[in-house]
Specification:
Distance between the termini: 12 Å
Bound molecules: hypoxanthine, zinc ion
Largest sheet: 8 strands, parallel
Number of strands: 8
Order of helices and strands: HEHHHHEHHEHEHEHEHEHHEHHHH
Helix content: 40-55%
CATH class: Alpha Beta
Strand content: 5-15%
Number of domains: 1
Number of helices: 17
CATH superfamily: Metal-dependent hydrolases
Shape: globular
Length: about 350
């Protein structure tokens, strides 16, 4: 078996389709923004922050993730957060990113929707101009909050509709099935927004069916529990519905006990359109390149597997077809000389 190096992984042009911008808030920036905004964190030092990142499940992570997000207050904070992520993209050769943001995490604390999206958009435009990274924003509804709050968020988003590609659904999955948001997703789709949803991370395959049938999503975020339902696997394969898989996240949140047990390769073998993503890289111990590298090692992925995953990341993106073709050609051109 060939050993895949970090520099080979870096050479692969990649897209990231499952990244929560609030989950890219690293300890250093968190401390800096807490000082700048005079916000008292419950952590005294960078080591304190890092030590807190021990999770037993999704909820234990979300509690800490919402705590950290409090330091984001001004437009400049959202700019800095997004810019820092784009610089990491550049390091990993991520050339396209479809980025989740959680407006309710901020509007519930009195930060305006305008502040959140304007700061991010300014960084994304600069990233496009100066780093050559294309991007879309995906606005997520927090599923632990009521439908009325999601509708209010959709209203607030409408003046900025041209900056938003799709709506998504995240936060605590168990007990909050996609059906709870069928009406707000319908309204969002009527406004021309595409749809995705987290499903089958901790929740059962039925939640994935609901996301497909009731929310009419184009992709499933995570979806690793689809393997428990052969009919669902057959459906995802036939319709080529992408699963945005996040291996290091699944490891940290104990969806799989060991990365060697992860079903990424099994999903690939079943003909599912999967790719690798980092989810909340500042909390889960790795950005996109790290996720590729750790999976290559743990699952003995070949160079051809990694190329397939990178190709899938563009095929499953919301880029227009000509841009997808350009990216697929770029993979062939940059990587044909490799192994
Ligand atoms: N699942 C659900 N909600 C989230 C996640 C996740 O992995 N990351 C940030 N919000
Ligand atoms: Zn996620």
């Amino acid at each position: 078996m060939n050993f895949i190096s970090r520099s080979q992984i870096k050479k692969l042009p990649k897209a990231e389709l499952h990244l929560h911008i609030e989950g890219s808030l690293g300890p250093e920036l968190m401390m800096k923004l807490a000082k700048r905004n005079k916000i008292k964190l419950k952590y005294q030092s960078l080591d304190d922050i890092r030590a807190a990142y021990q999770f037993s499940n999704l909820q234990s992570f979300l509690d800490i993730y919402y705590e950290g997000a409090q330091v984001l207050v001004c437009e400049e904070d959202f700019f800095d957060l997004t810019w820092e992520y784009l610089l990491r993209c550049k390091e990993d050769n991520v050339v396209h990113a479809e980025i989740f943001f959680d407006p309710q995490t901020h509007t519930e604390r009195g930060v305006s929707f305008n502040t959140v999206i304007t700061g991010m958009k300014r960084a994304l435009d600069q990233g496009n101009r100066e780093l050559g990274i294309s991007s879309y924003l995906i606005m997520c509804f927090l599923r632990h909050l009521p439908e009325t709050s999601a509708f209010k968020t959709l209203e607030e988003a409408l003046p900025f509709k041209s900056w938003i590609k799709a709506v998504g659904l995240d936060s605590s999955e168990l007990g909050h099935p996609p059906s709870k948001f069928a009406r707000v997703f319908e309204a969002a789709r009527e406004h021309g927004l595409l749809a995705v949803a987290h499903a089958g991370e901790e929740g059962p395959p039925e939640y994935i069916w609901e996301a497909l049938e009731l929310l009419k999503v184009r992709r499933i975020d995570h979806g690793v529990r689809s393997m428990e339902d052969p009919k669902l696997i057959q459906y995802l394969q036939q319709k080529q519905i992408p699963l945005t898989v996040c291996p290091l996240s699944n490891l940290k949140l104990k969806v799989f006990k060991d990365l060697r047990d992860h079903n990424l390769k099994k999903l690939m073998n079943a003909g599912i359109l999967v790719m690798i993503n980092s989810d909340d890289p500042a909390y889960f111990g790795g950005y996109l390149g790290d996720n590729y590298f750790e999976c290559a090692k743990a699952l003995a992925l070949s160079w051809e597997d990694l190329k397939t995953l990178a190709r899938n990341s563009f095929s499953a993106s919301f880029l227009p077809d000509d841009e997808k073709t350009r990216m697929l050609n770029l993979i062939e051109r940059t990587c044909s000389d490799h192994m």
